[in-house]
């Protein structure tokens, strides 16, 4: 078994495959997506959208309570562990009009969705590229094998290269890149769902708290 694993693991060939996939995906998606894609990897096992959603709902209940008692300007006293939630609370407390907060929320959610889609696209690019690089390695290996038919000692390494590159391409595409892309896409959808819900609740609170002010202003004008 160990001997088989030794034959299957060729660090140089694997390194070339990984480097080739990374470079092509980098050229297709850009440096920013490249960096964000690897920075997002810890989320595969750390992210818990369900927990974040429950915490956000509990925090929003406290924000609503503070807004009713002391007004929107005091809502920033509520502490939130989630960075997006903390930022949204500060924006709610500092906003001058409901429309301005609504514009911020729409833009923030759109920006987050765009970043998530770029990361998803990067890993899909790796999944698409890996089999193609594997086939290219297979062709190179076959060419080397046929070129060395007069020397039996050269046939084995060339055939091994041809088969290993195909194996590495299939593994990288179907067991690494594609599952990573699917997992990150699922996490993104669930995260954006609760963040959208949060912003909608904040908008309702902001409209409720500013409505009396607007009515008073209308009466004063009249």
TrEMBL record:
Membrane-spanning residues: 12-31, 122-147, 159-181
Residue span(s) of domain MotA/TolQ/ExbB proton channel: 82-192
Subcellular location: Cell membrane
Main location: membrane
Membrane-topology annotation of the record: Multi-pass membrane protein
GO cellular component: plasma membrane
GO biological process: bacterial-type flagellum-dependent swarming motility; chemotaxis
Top-rank lineage group of the source organism: Bacteria
Keyword entries, A-Z: Cell membrane, Cell projection, Cilium, Flagellar rotation, Flagellum, Membrane, Transmembrane, Transmembrane helix, Transport
One Pfam family here: MotA_ExbB
Family, per entry: Belongs to the MotA family.
Protein name: Flagellar motor protein
The organism of origin for this protein: Sphingobium fluviale
């Amino acid at each position: 078994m160990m001997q088989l694993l030794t034959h299957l693991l060729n660090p140089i060939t694997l390194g070339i495959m990984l480097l080739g996939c990374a470079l092509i995906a980098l050229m297709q998606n850009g440096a920013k997506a490249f960096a964000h894609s690897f920075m997002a990897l810890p989320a595969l096992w750390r992210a818990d959208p369900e927990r974040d959603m429950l915490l956000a709902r509990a925090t929003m209940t406290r924000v609503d309570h503070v807004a009713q008692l002391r007004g929107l300007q005091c809502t920033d006293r509520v502490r939130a562990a989630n960075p997006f939630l903390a930022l949204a609370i500060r924006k709610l407390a500092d906003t001058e009009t409901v429309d301005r907060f609504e514009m911020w929320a729409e833009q923030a959610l759109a920006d987050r969705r765009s970043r998530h889609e770029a990361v998803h696209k990067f890993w899909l690019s790796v999944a698409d590229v890996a089999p193609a690089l594997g086939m290219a390695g297979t062709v190179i290996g076959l060419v080397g094998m046929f070129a060395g038919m007069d020397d039996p000692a050269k046939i084995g390494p060339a055939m091994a290269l041809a088969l290993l590159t195909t194996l590495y391409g299939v593994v990288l595409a179907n067991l690494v890149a594609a599952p990573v892309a699917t997992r990150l896409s699922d996490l993104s959808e669930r995260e954006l769902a609760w963040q959208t819900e949060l912003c909608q609740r904040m908008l309702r609170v902001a409209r409720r708290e500013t409505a009396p002010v607007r009515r008073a202003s209308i009466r004063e004008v009249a």
